[in-house]
Predict the 3D structure of the following.
Amino acid sequence: MKLKPFLIIVALLCISNVLVSQPVANTLIVHADAANDTISKYIYSQFAEHLGHGIYGGVWVGEDSPIPNTRGIRNDVVDALKKIKVAAVRWPGGCFADEYHWRDGIGPRADRPKMVNTNWGGVVEDNSFGTHEFMDLCEQLGCEPVICGNIGSGTVEEMADWVQYLTSDGDNPMTALRKKNGREKPWKVKFWGVGNETWGCGGIMTADFYANELARYSFFLKNYGGNSLTKIASGGLPEDYGWTDAIMKKWKNVDGWLQPYLGGYSLHYYTVPDWNKKGSATNFTESDWFATLSTTLKMEDLVTRHSAVMDQYDPHKRIGLIVDEWGDWFDVEPGTNPGFLYQQNTLRDAIVAAVNLNIFHKHCDRVKMTNIAQMVNVLQAMILTKGKEIVLTPTYYVFKMYSVHQDAAMLPIDLQCEPYTSGKDTLPALSASASRDKEGKIHISIANLDPVRTQNLRCEVKGTSGSKVAGEVITAATMNAYNDFGKPEEVTMKPFTGAQLHNGILTVSLPAKSIVTLEVK
Ligand code: AHR
């Protein structure tokens, strides 16, 4: 009988140890009382290029296809994309943009001229998916179009006419042509890329040459009616801060001319540890996993340093940093066209997506849009298609899970975490971000990069009286788990029960190689 009080004391000590004083190496402070910036929903934008089956087969099947479609656009793909709240789609490239002549993609489809897609597999492009089809896709998705104009092999007149064709309702030849092609009312186009990778496939220009071209083109891309274009300048190579400086200097110096015309500056950065040996998307070791995550974390440095250059000229952050191409780039799947960039997508890609989104959230004062490459069937895709079948990738589920952060107030965080070690190298084991939505709910997203160890986290949310926590998790049994055609999904979102909230302190047990989003209310 004497044992009973003793057992009660031991039990109480254990509970208090778990709840209060258990040493936890990982700590997160969420400053819910210090929100300043909004996480633009456009961080959740996509990129869809005329590349492989990114458009043809992936989005566009044509009106006569047995695959259910609306005016030629796949219903299953649209339905899935609507669930992740795609904010904008960038089109038609990429490198393809600088050999695309928009007039080839309007009018009766049977009359549209064909071309060879020299960048991507040398296949015949029949232009059956053109301006009207793309704008229809955006309308079906309820998202904004981001049109990337051809500066490399086009002309100012051609690009200016495209803007007029899309957005003008005036008495002019382009409006008349649009009406003749069946679209009475002009569309609204908010975002316009003035060339793509102009240092390379977009024309092999120097920064100063492009800066002049940018000013010239931008000046002639007019706002019609109530439309207001946010023009996006092409950036240089990922680490070319001199290019950023040249464009920003030009922007500053032509005060009154270029300034009102430019709203964004583009950064492209792909997660590729070794461009000569990209490696398999599915068959990889832990050392490859580590190298991929280490490479993807460099996004933080790139965003910070490009932002610092932009700050020198634009301290009020009128120009957004637009990361309009990012994501994993691995070897194509065996047996597929090397020019089609078709790759599978595993839990590793999901972690890469979460890490990058956390970085973009942190820098949302400057990062105003990002477009993952690419939406369907190309590189780090949301969706893979095979005939009438579709697969939702692990990356898709991260975008779904993280959609709660769209247009929410970014909450600054302090994260202290254990290292994830591989040989002599280390990475932070955790990556996180937090926001408060318009209903006052706080969302905290955390990725555990360590593929082996569970990480316990103590999290304090300052400035909130939330008393309930719920969550969702994405993980799988293996690092290279993926979703495949005709098989049950291996990587998806599931309810998460590893978080407790007591006296304002969250304790979270993050499974190895996982992504968790918690909701505190
Ligand atoms: O996304 C594939 C290609 O990568 C794009 O066409 C180009 O802009 C980049 O180099």
Remarks:
- Residues 49, 93-95, 196-197, 325, 373-374, 379 surround alpha-L-arabinofuranose (CB under 6 Å).
